[in-house]
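hi! just following up on the protien thing from before. the input was this:
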Amino acid sequence: MSAKITIVDAAIGVIDNEQIDGLIKFNDYLASIRLTPRDTKAGGTWVVKHKGKSVCHIRLDDTEQNWNISFGHFTNKEKWFVNYDQYITDNSLKQFVWDNIHTAPSPNSNCIKRECKGLDSITILGKTLNDVCRCVGVRVYNPNNEEIEQAKKIVLIIKQYIADLVTAS
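and the predicted 3d structure came back as:
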């Protein structure tokens, strides 16, 4: 039986060393709160779950030589949708979400799905945004240290929401 490859191992040769440092920092944080990215076997996409529910996805893109963190919970209403207005009150965290909402000029452009679920105008954290992709939600490409810190806060919020959801059921 072969050892499972880690996301950091998989990143070597796909993204540059500076980006790997950020990935290591985020991965170490996930480990510190007992979360581990699992390879989905879907072209460099790793899922982070808590109590069986998705917290985020991490994608290694060898074509673009980047990595990104995505949180689909903000826009994918076909799955469990969280009203983050009650969870996110910090203005800098709101700005982080708004700045990283995945928008597209038309369905299927820049979409992670082969068949895009379409675009919406939605209100997120009190701000109305247009042409928001229903597939992705928030996506941060090659996050810098400040963006990683904000992503960590989102991870904690989602982890707490999942814990509350599981406890309530």
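DSSP finds four helices and seven strands in the chain.
Strands lie at 38-39, 45-50, 53-61, 66-71, 119-124, 127-133, 138-141.
cheers
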